[in-house]
Amino acid sequence: MKIALINENSQASKNELIYNTLNKVATKYGHTVDNYGMINAEDQPLTYVQNGLLAAILLNSSAADFVVTGCGTGSGAMLACNSFPNVLCGLIVDPSDAYMFGQINDGNCAAFPFAKGFGWGAELNLEYCFEKLFNGPRGQGYPKERAIPEQTNKKILDDVKKITHTPMIEILKRIDQEFLKNTINRPNFKNYFFKNAKDQEIINYCKKILEQ
Question: Dihedrals φ, ψ of 198, to 5°?
Fold first, then answer.
């Protein structure tokens, strides 16, 4: 599985810690991590709304299979991500959240609070959360006797989102084009996205925006 990490501007200084912790767990289970930044506070800023847009581009184009993101509380990033099609983002505070989100909701994006409650032992909590997210199959249900209704509800939710959300390519065409360009016009996006993305329509539109 290809995992993308996206930090927003207020927590850019923690990117290295988060990336190293995530990569430690991911590689153990055969996953890879692409760090989309922000790498440091000097990078072009990413707001939590841009995190949502970037996560949606990556997931809808299959440039990533799962996105790890967040902001000060995690709530803003979660709300932004869930406003886009084919993105199912949960707010993860502790390892039990991570495990139950993975098993019950089987989402493809997780938002973390990287400021609120991020104190002594924060890197251990992150490591244990990543362990519960990425150490095996997701969507198996919890408790196990609830597996079938939970899997049914997940499918219903996916179908509802297909009806209530506009296709990603239409969003890219209708969203503020300068906002879109500011979101994707960064070295790490160009490096990872164009190497890994599979949806040619989204790829072509991103190229068009970057060339403007």
Answer: -120, -20
